[in-house]
Specification:
Number of domains: 1
Number of strands: 0
Radius of gyration: 17 Å
Number of helices: 5
Strand content: under 5%
Order of helices and strands: HHHHH
Helix content: over 70%
């Protein structure tokens, strides 16, 4: 039981750290002015004027972070459900982000689809394989 809890927590931590690292690199590669998050009009203008590369970069970061987190959780716990829990946490955090900050509809859809795909990929690559009959 403790291994399952720690595995899920480790997976979520890996995913969060991957998002932070990815967004740091993205902001270095595509610098954007950072308005006050409380100023909804400024945030909406920023998202409207952000280059397409920054928007797709965000979607890719969510995919990679979810894959890494789901892989970590599944590898530690040896339970497929732990990777799905990490994926669900990433989806919930992303939806919360979308509620707080304006994003284009296509970005929201792409992010949620790729978070699901990242979770599946992380779980699939972490699952122990049955021994080949020889």
């Amino acid at each position: 039981m403790v291994r399952n809890i720690l595995g899920v927590l480790a997976g979520v931590a890996v995913a969060i750290l991957a998002v932070m690292a990815g967004e740091f690199v993205l902001h270095v590669l595509v610098p954007l002015p950072m308005p006050d998050p409380a100023d909804a009009a400024a945030m909406e203008a920023l998202m409207a004027s952000a280059p397409l590369a920054a928007k797709w970069g965000l979607v890719v970061i969510y995919f990679v972070a979810t894959a890494l987190g789901a892989f970590t959780a599944t590898r530690i716990t040896v339970r497929v459900w732990s990777g799905w829990v990490v994926m669900a946490v990433m989806m919930a955090a992303t939806v919360a982000n979308f509620v707080m900050l304006p994003h284009p509809a296509w970005l929201m859809i792409a992010a949620l689809v790729l978070i699901g795909a990242g979770g599946w990929l992380g779980i699939r690559t972490a699952r122990p394989r049955p021994a080949a009959a020889g």
